[in-house]
Design a protein that fits this description.
Largest sheet: 7 strands, mixed
Helix content: 25-40%
Order of helices and strands: EHEHHEHEHEHEHEHEHEEHEEEH
Structural class: alpha/beta
Number of strands: 13
Distance between the termini: 37 Å
Number of domains: 2
Number of helices: 11
Shape: globular
CATH class of the largest domain: Alpha Beta
């Protein structure tokens, strides 16, 4: 697109993912924020709703209006809760706006599966029309997609760890176990007892064991990579930190598979990615190494005694696990360099 700017709207801008979108888009050389929309804080100055933007961004949070978005923006990022996003996405697509949706409303391809895990869909006429926004696995599909379902932090981190192994047939597709640990920002900005500091700061707890709604999304993507059905056990944990996800996944190795082979398979799959770094065998990913960045660090071990491959991935749940991933999709969709505005290293320490 030569040196043209793309005008964008951020819908659901005052949550953590929306705030992260604004931060990234303000530094993006080819994006111009035309609208900042929110419901509960409509009419509130942006700098009051998001204090990190004091002295950086003026104006007020606007009430969402699909027609106004169409008139002022070429694309919209929707950072709304599951279920609330679908009708808004539908209204925007009806008006020809390119949409990057950060909810789970359009990620699944099978309607009965969606209804089993989420209930009725808010825009059934558009179900199954989105491209899945994990760029490293769907880059070609995203180049002309007008609706992108940006994946969540848990499926992103687990898929990046396991996809190379399944694609290269280094592990069995059955018996996979995914253990994920996430910072509290993944629970959103609205207060809840689970995320309350006195209850979260001194403990680590599992939740939604074997029943988390991202399970079918992860199985969908890994089954496509493997070329056969994949079933897995997924257990998420809340850990007392603000940002980051570390996934440790376990698979039964095929005969003779080594950590070096796993590493080489990941290097092949992620070749050219501006976001994924494959670590040398024996190096463990660390959430601190990717904090605040769109980076993903992937690493592998082999437990020869137990015939297990151990696959690990660390990401920032708000960046590569949400808003940075959406901007990465935006770059691919509008023909920009994939890493544009996303190459900053992690905040360390």
């Amino acid at each position: 697109m030569d040196n043209e700017e793309v005008s964008v709207a951020v819908v659901g801008a005052t949550g953590y993912a929306g705030a992260e979108l604004i931060r990234l888009l303000l530094a993006h050389p080819r994006a111009r924020i035309a609208m900042v929309c929110g419901q509960s804080k409509a009419g509130v100055p942006i700098a009051e709703a998001l204090p990190s933007l004091r002295g950086v961004m003026s104006g007020e949070v606007e009430q969402f209006d699909a027609g106004a978005v169409r008139d002022r923006a070429d694309a919209a990022f929707c950072a709304l809760p599951h279920g609330a996003s679908a009708p808004i996405v539908g209204a925007l697509r009806d008006r020809g706006v390119v949409v990057f949706d950060l909810s789970a409303d359009f990620r699944l391809g099978d309607r009965p599966t969606y209804e089993q895990w989420y209930g009725d869909h808010g825009a059934p006429e558009r179900f199954g029309t989105a491209a899945y926004g994990l760029v490293e696995l769907h880059r070609d599909e995203l180049r002309d997609a007008d609706l992108v379902a940006v994946p969540g932090c848990y499926p992103t981190s687990a898929a990046l760890a396991l996809a190379p192994l399944l694609k290269a047939r280094l592990v069995e597709p059955s018996g996979l176990v995914v253990d994920s640990k996430s910072g509290a920002s993944g629970m959103g900005r609205s207060p809840s007892p689970t995320g309350h500091l006195p209850e979260a700061a001194e403990g680590v707890r599992a939740y939604k064991v074997a029943q988390h709604r991202h399970t079918p999304e992860l199985e969908q993507e890994l089954s496509a990579v493997a070329g056969q059905p994949v079933r897995l056990t997924f257990v998420p944990h809340l850990v007392p930190m603000t940002r980051g996800i570390l996934v440790t996944a376990y698979g039964t190795r095929r005969p003779g598979v080594t950590a070096a082979q796993c590493t080489e398979a990941a290097e092949r799959l992620f070749e050219g990615s501006p976001s994924v770094t494959v670590l040398p065998p024996g190096t463990n990913p660390d959430t601190l190494w990717v904090r605040g960045s769109n980076r993903a660090h992937v690493g592998y071990w082999v437990d020869e005694r137990a015939d297990r491959v151990i696959a690990m991935c660390a990401i920032d749940n708000l960046v590569k696990g949400a808003s940075g991933q959406a901007v990465q999709c935006f770059n691919v969709r509008f023909g920009f360099d994939e890493g544009l505005g996303l190459r900053a290293p992690a905040q360390w320490p």
